[in-house]
Amino acid sequence: MDFLTWFVVVPSLTVIGIVFTKNMNQTRLVAALGMSIQLILAISLVFMYLAQRRAGNTAEMLFMHTHSWFSSFNITYSIGVDGISVAMIMLTAVIVFTGIFASWMVDFLSREFFISLILLSTGVFGFFISIDLFTMFLFYEVAVIPMYLLIGIWGSGPKEYSAMKLTLMLMGGSALLLVGLLGIYFNSNAGGGDLTFNILDISKVKIPIEAQRFFFPMTFIGFGILGALFPFHTWSPDGHASAPTAVSMLHAGVLMKLGGYGAFRVAMFLMPDAAHEMAWIFLLLTGFSVVYGAFGAIFQKDLKYINAYSSVSHCGLVLFAILMMNKTALNGAVIQMVSHGLMTALFFALIGMIYGRTHTRMINEMGGLMKVIPFLGVCYVIAGLASLGLPGLSGFVAEMTIFVGAFQHADNFHRILTIAAASSIVITAVYILRVVGILLLGPVKNEHFLTFTDAKWYEKVSTGFLIATIAGIGLAPLWLSDMINDSLNPVIIQLSQVILP
Amino acid sequence: MNLDSFLLMRHEIILTIVTLIILIAELADWNKNRVITLTLVLFFITTITGFLPVQEGSLFGDMYRTGPLISLMKNILNIGVMILFLQTAGWLKKPEYFGKVSEFYMLILSTLIGMNFMISSGHFIMFYIGLELATIPIASLAAYDRHKNISAEAGIKLILSSALSSGILLYGLSMIYGTVGSLYFMDVAAAGLNTPLQVMAFIFFFAGMAFKISLVPFHLWTADVYEGAPVNVASYLSVISKGAAAFIFTIILYTVFFSIAEIWKELVYVIAVVTMTVGNLFAIRQKNLKRFLAFSSIAQAGFILLGIIDGTELGMSTIIYFVLIYIFSNLGAFGVISAISVMTDKEYMDDYNGLYKTNPKLSLVMMLSLFSLAGIPPVAGFFGKFFLFTAAANQGYYWLVFIAVLNATISLYYYLLVVKAMFINKNDNPISYFRSDFTTRAALLLCVAGIFFIGFLSPVYEFIRSLSIGM
Q1: Alpha-carbon gap, residue B125 to B131, rounded angstroms
Q2: How far apart are CA B193 and CA B256, in angstroms?
Q3: Is residue A501's pLDDT more than 60?
Q4: If you average pLDDT over every residue of chain B, what do you get?
Q5: Tens digits of per-residue pLDDT, B213-267?
């Protein structure tokens, strides 16, 4: 079997393995084992990818493999990765791995929990390796539906409402997406060839501009809903707040990136003309969601809501950067996806751990936690600093690149928007520091807090690993941005053909 | 009648023989358990022999036609009935039905013969006879629980409304005969219908068929009949009967009425939108699972129209493929409802609260079936729906596809309500654990296997595609 297929096979085998486990201990051991293998696979993929590039392999996609599936529709099982997908796969592997440890103590229906969680990650991995629109869409939906059960069964608060809202909004998004994909498919013979779902083949075809105008917004919004594009972001705060820890991690960390990745790889790459024409509409929307998300976070009292709104802001920045359509900004967008994925996963993991001790997520009911659980407290501060873009951590690299790229546009429209979006950093600092102050510093508010124990080993694995990767990107960003940079060329060429006719 | 013509008609002839054998067994006063086993074995053989290769050919001066495509459709129906028979074995053994076992089988089989003739017809009279044979016995089946008022009511409702729709259909046929002078499909097709009277004839025909497939606004009988009829009869109505009608409807639209395709495409467009939307919106409010699946099956019929509107072999192949998947998915859902209703007589959604705790396997089968109905990957329903949408998009009906996918999202909402009841809702007094009998489990296993594999196995679709025809 080719190398990339293992990324789908390993989680599937893990799921099957979990079905046969007898108790919670076995279940989580199998899950941890499977996801460790997955992590090792991902790390070796990064090294193999870099080795191939160093050896001078300049193909658009590496490790390609195509297997005919529904031949009368020309649907194939086509896989391949470029630097961007490698980065996303690595991110997913890290977050699923740490997510397993963050949910080490799930004891209610633990078998079903881990099955759904890993099934979800199977969809995500499949999505990132696909270069066929049909399989991509299939994996996309596989990733969305276990969410319902994960939030509905293991969630907290108004979980049934949130689960239903999230599922229906995301499925509504995939309704738009499906029409968009079919539109692309039926226009993929514009150059005289066969109809195809293959992204690389379609990118060589110039889809008629009328079709692009109709299908670009559908595809972009379809993916944008998953990327929390304003005004379709409302599922995100409710969903995140109700979801159990690992699901929030995976959802904010990875699933929302599916939106950004898809908007970039499908909508922009295949329909550059319409993208260029309509970018301003979506720039306004995303610019708004960047600022709005940050302001939203200030007024929240629930830790998870704060983070969910901050995710709206940060993911808005991803789409914002993509729409700037130049190399620097796109590079920043991908780094931001990775960076935000890691950072928000760390946040949600920590919130889950704090909630597991205090049984409340309301910040005004907590205080002085630094004194009782110093390890988790320090981790929280690090996550916060990464979120507000402190140099040395990944957030700084990402946001800096994005704003530098965005500012390269010389016209007032783009510059004003960039300045507005950049102001979100300041607002981020407000809500992060406010939370840190109330939550961690000051006197211990409740006698009961004094009985808390600091992080257990599995919690340290989870948080330590995430912090190491965040600092790794922050201190040595070049290997990541170089890896991404080469892979951006095809997209840049597509876009430049439009700008300079 | 020589051997060749026997081979051409073997579906119908074998079914008739099986029906007669059951009648003889009944007359000979066999033990009912033996009748059940006998029927299962005989029908299994029937299903297998259906798969023997068949030649293109016609009988009775083109009144009856067959070929690989038609034979495939009959086989799909046979598979569905086979699963249904497996599901019903446990139910028929209940004391109140035990005396009427052979009646059930004979009535089902005669409707199946009717459907086979209907699909094979090459003449409108043949078609009409098949249609009636496929409908009237179902009315008596709907009233199978005759000691229950609601069941008797269902039977009467079905027979009256179906008589009315047959009348409308016949009226349309009479206009066709009046203008063309023949009722052979070939002659009508060759005449190239286009006068207003012929268009009106077509609309009457369409209304009659819409009743059988339960398209809005001809769907009003559906929910009441499904609710009143025994679960297994409702599942037969929603799966086999609807599938057969969809098959012949597609064939006739493609081969007879292709000259007014522009007209029927508009009609199908509007009816598709209305059917999906009304079916879905009404399904949301249902508490009784049989009514719930009745409206869900109305909505599914709306999706089938998306394949019809395409008009090429792509459209026909997606319809057949979708119906095949739909049979497995819907029989899976009905199978669970039937198993639970046999054991506990419970048919309401609230009764299913907390089912996963006590009956995890049944809940999983139910969930998979519902996901397949909703079109969620990786189960087969996703592939069925996706291809139907592709068929509609092929003709540029992107808005129709969009409405359909939105409807699929709405349908996901109510399917998830059932999933929620089983997996999330708490219940102090859930349906207690029970083990269903062997045949039910075999049937559900078949359904699950179908739901899992038909989607991934592209040769199934490619085979159907290779046989399909277009306008």
Answers
A1: 10
A2: 9
A3: no
A4: 90
A5: 889 888 889 988 998 899 999 999 999 999 999 999 999 999 999 888 888 999 9
Q: How far is residue A135 from each of residues A260, A490, B164, measured CA to CA in Å?
A: 18, 22, 47
- Contact yes or no for B388/B358 (Cβ under 8 A): no
Mean confidence (pLDDT) of chain A: 86
Residue with tokens 């005449």, as numbered in its chain: B191
CB contact under 8 A, A182 and B377: no
* C-beta atoms of A152 and B378 within 8 A: no
**Angle, alpha carbons B23-B29-B31 (nearest 5°):** 105
Looking at residues A257-275, what average pLDDT do you find?
Answer: 88
Residues of B within 8 A of A168 (CB-CB) are 409, 412-413
Confidence of residue B318 (pLDDT cuts 50, 70, 90): very high
- Record: contact B390-A164, CB cut-off 8 A: no
Q: For residue B389, give how far its alpha carbon lies from the nearest alpha carbon of chain A (Å).
A: 8
Interface contacts A/B by beta carbons within 8 Å:
82
Establish if A226 touches chain B: CB-CB under 8 angstroms: no
d(CA B215, CA B300) in angstroms, rounded, equals 10
Largest separation between any pair of C-alpha atoms in chain B: 68
Q: pLDDT above 70 covers what percent of chain A?
A: 99
pLDDT over 90, % of chain B = 52
**H/E element holding A78?**
strand A75-81
User: Residues A50-68: pLDDT tens digits?
Assistant: 888 888 887 888 888 888 8
Chain A residue nearest residue B375, CA to CA: A141
Cis geometry, peptide bond prior to residue B378 (ω within 30 degrees of 0)? yes
Q: Which of B3, B127, B4, B114 is nearest to B57 (CA)?
A: B4
Q: By 3-state DSSP, what share of chain A in percent is helix, strand and coil, each rounded to 5? A: 75, 5, 20
Q: State the residue for tokens 């592939």.
A: B383
Q: Please, are residues A150 and A103 in contact by the beta-carbon 8 Å criterion?
A: no
What are the counts of helices (DSSP H) followed by strands (DSSP E) for chain B? Answer: 22, 2
Q: How far is CA A288 from CA A169, A445, B6, in A?
A: 20, 37, 73
Q: Which two tokens stand for residue B187?
A: 């002659």
ipTM summary value: 0.90
